[in-house]
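Section 5.1 Outputs to date
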Amino acid sequence: MKKSLLAAAVLSAVSFGAYADGVELYGIMDLAVAQVSNAASADSTFPSSLKLKGGVASSTTTSLTAMVSGGIQGSRWGIKGSEDLGGDMKALFQLESGIQANDGALGNGWATKATGAANGDASSLNGQLFGRTAWVGLSDKDLGTIKFGRQYSVIYDTYNEFDPVQFATLFSPTGNSGSVAGGGNTELVRQDNSIKYVGKTDNLSYTAMYKLGNIAGSTSAGSVFGAQLAYNNGAFGAAVAYQSAIDALGYDSYTAATGSGNTYTAASYKGRVGNISSYIVAVKYKFNNQLTGKANYQRVTYNNPSDTDSTFLTNNFLSYSGGYSFTSVAARNVGSAGFNISSVGGDYKLSDKLALYAGYYVINYDAAGGAKLTGKLTDPSISEQYASLLLDYNLSKRTDVYFGGMQVNTNASLTSGLNVFAAGMRHKF
């Protein structure tokens, strides 16, 4: 009720101020009709919930034919604006909320569900009204831009530009996996209490980001540091980004495992904490006005948390987890393990209005570590391959229709290929 009243108040304010200098109401409505087969988890409310059966400790699959919100981009509405402060300096702000375009509900994660409980999918959206982003900042023509608040990670920013299939929710593993796009942890896609600086010199841009942990008694727990360096001269673009999270919260809805070699002991965790580091290298090249190629590589490494005291973890991270309903919080305790993800592909303009996007992705989990990361006790090394195609037709600058598919295979046991086919429409306002 309080959120409904707040939303009404915000919209009322916008109706009077949307045409004021520097303030803009904007949004995206993206709806698709999708057919999903052989998924471990499929939910029309959360298209990013798609998971391989081999990636979780489950022998069941889900098939789904439904209208879903966010085939390419999550549906949303937002308010952004700026004020000229003089001397080439501006004050900036942005507030953005998710929409479930198929039923009109808020699309901001767990709290939008009828029960308010976990639905088996992790997300950086935990029921906030402005769950997608909320920040305020300053920009200077020469000095760059600094922003404070809830913001996207440097890993997410890199994928957003260099993913070969539009970073699409239904057609790209980087688009539908928060763990990949977040740099190893879906909670890290968006980072609360963060400071982000972006500067630019000629063709070179550089970003530094720091998330405060905001945990009493610790200056580092829950903190994240990230940095990105990017180059773009029009035809050629490249970026490298690095991120390190200390005592980061991770969500696992399945049985985790600890141990060494091929021997593991199962322990039922719903929340695990660990240190997570990741880096990504990405390139793109525009061969001509029709063809653009893209490729990227990311490495994610999980290590034991810096603070393993169970009282500290329970007292801090259970409350830190927002809308999650954890039965326990425990250390990740995997030693050192991780995964690599590589992709190659691009887009080809068939005409001024029609473009074809194609991508091939491979995710390889470390031997031995793979079982601990995925909750499977029998497959210590797991490989996943994704093939995606997306055909996108622009009816105008703000409206397009699309059709696409993604086929996934893995060497994990109990697994059939995950298939996704969808047709949809996207409108930007």
